[in-house]
Specification:
globular; 362 residues; 5-stranded mixed β-sheet; binds oxa(dethia)-CoA; Peroxisomal Thiolase, Chain A, domain 1; alpha/beta
Length: 362
């Protein structure tokens, strides 16, 4: 029987930090509102291309696995803020890292993109179709933000993370997953003017708008993630007592607290870094997993539960049994291009454009 071990992990956070105090300089909000409703204190803003973050996290994951990129036979990239649709962005990453023997696929299921990719990749390995796969999740969401919408703009940040999975006969890696989609609520998170359904002849076409029903998403997120967690526990005949660590999608600290209560998991088993990075959509889980490893929170043989939700409304959960190794085999000096601007300086033209549009249209 084949399994898919996670042999490498890496993250890339752009250096520019946008604090809640920074947001109050151009938006009617407060640090108190943001932290009490979401737990978010700051987020990162990307100064380069999305693929630059993806390439750095890929190189770090490959170094941790000590794997020659030419040995990869597939790249799965979860994101909705790709550099480009054609060519797809996974092929840009493939070329940059020298994965010349890989096929490359972009997966757009929004925040769930990484977990979906890990599920697909694991099962391709388990069927024998592929042997070594790079799975990435990340977002350059500040690029698509409407900076005049305070109910959305305070929530998100930019980041990317990656893992390498490799075939093994040992019963480790992702052992159970459950994914799904509540499509009746698909417009509860909608980014307008991105896609061919929108008229390019409209005056409004160049302005992104987020339709965002925060409370509806909140309720469905807790319900769907809790059910998916119960499903994967049941698949492996485990209980929450068997789970050593929870590495969930980081959208909102209150959602994570509600999930832990509903599933019956002690809060100290839940890895949380949403206060530092906000919601980085498909980036949250690989970044959190990498940080959990760096902080010594993952022990050999641990059972790790992960759960996620996002636009669609897509949702999912999985259980990973960790192998023996919790440290990287090697490191790399891969870094982003230098950044000489503050987060506010990077965003200034976008903020000015959206505020001017808002003033004109109300
Ligand atoms: O990964 C998937 C992405 N989606 C999510 O993560 C969304 C999940 N939902 C949530 O996290 C929460 O619903 C939010 C954080 C978005 C909102 O929290 P809430 O407790 O549900 O607040 P609310 O929508 O009930 O808004 C309460 C008030 C409103 O004012 P009024 O109408 O009560 O006077 C808003 O206008 O808060 C106001 N408000 C703000 N005030 C200050 C909304 N955004 C802000 C803001 N600063 N940034």
């Amino acid at each position: 029987m084949l399994y898919a071990e996670i042999t490498g992990w890496g993250k890339c956070l752009p250096p520019a930090v946008l604090s809640n105090a920074d947001l109050t300089t151009f938006m009617d909000t407060t640090d108190e509102w943001i932290t009490s409703r979401t737990g978010i204190e700051e987020r990162r803003i990307c100064h380069c291309n999305f693929s630059d973050m993806a390439i750095v996290s890929a190189r770090r994951a490959l170094a941790a696995a000590n794997l020659d990129p030419a040995e990869l036979d597939l790249i799965l990239l979860g994101s909705l803020t790709m550099d480009s649709l054609c060519p797809n962005t996974a092929s840009i990453i493939q070329d940059a890292i020298g994965a010349k023997n890989a096929a490359s696929i972009d997966i757009n299921s929004a925040c769930t993109g990484f977990l979906y990719g890990l599920h697909i990749g694991t099962n391709l390995i388990r069927t024998g179709a592929h042997k070594k796969i790079l799975v990435l999740g990340g977002e350059f969401i500040s690029h698509y933000m409407n900076w005049a919408q305070r109910d959305v703009a305070v929530l998100f940040g930019d980041a990317c993370g990656a893992v390498v999975i490799e075939a093994t006969e040992e019963r480790i890696g992702l052992l159970a997953a459950k994914i799904g989609c509540e499509a009746d609520a698909k417009y509860a998170i909608q980014i307008t003017n991105l896609g061919s359904a929108y008229s390019r002849l409209s005056e409004e076409f160049l302005y992104i708008n987020w339709n965002f029903e925060g409370q509806e998403v909140f309720k469905r997120a807790v319900k769907c993630m809790a059910r998916a967690c119960e499903d994967v526990l049941h698949q492996l005949d485990l209980t929450t007592a068997d789970i050593d660590l929870v590495v969930p999608h980081q959208a909102n600290k209150r959602i994570l607290d509600a999930l832990a209560r509903r599933v019956g998991i002690e809060e100290d088993k839940v890895f949380i870094n949403v206060h530092k990075y906000g919601n980085t959509s498909a980036g949250t889980i690989p970044v959190a997993l990498t940080e959990a490893l760096e902080e010594g929170r993952v022990k050999p043989g641990d059972y790790i539960l992960s759960a996620t939700f996002g636009a669609g409304l897509s949702w999912g959960a999985c259980i990973i049994k960790w192998g023996d190794r919790v440290t990287p085999l090697a490191t790399t000096d891969a870094e982003l291009p230098p950044c000489d601007k503050t987060a506010l300086e990077i965003l200034q033209p976008h903020i000015a454009r959206y505020l001017a549009h808002e003033a004109k249209t109300g």
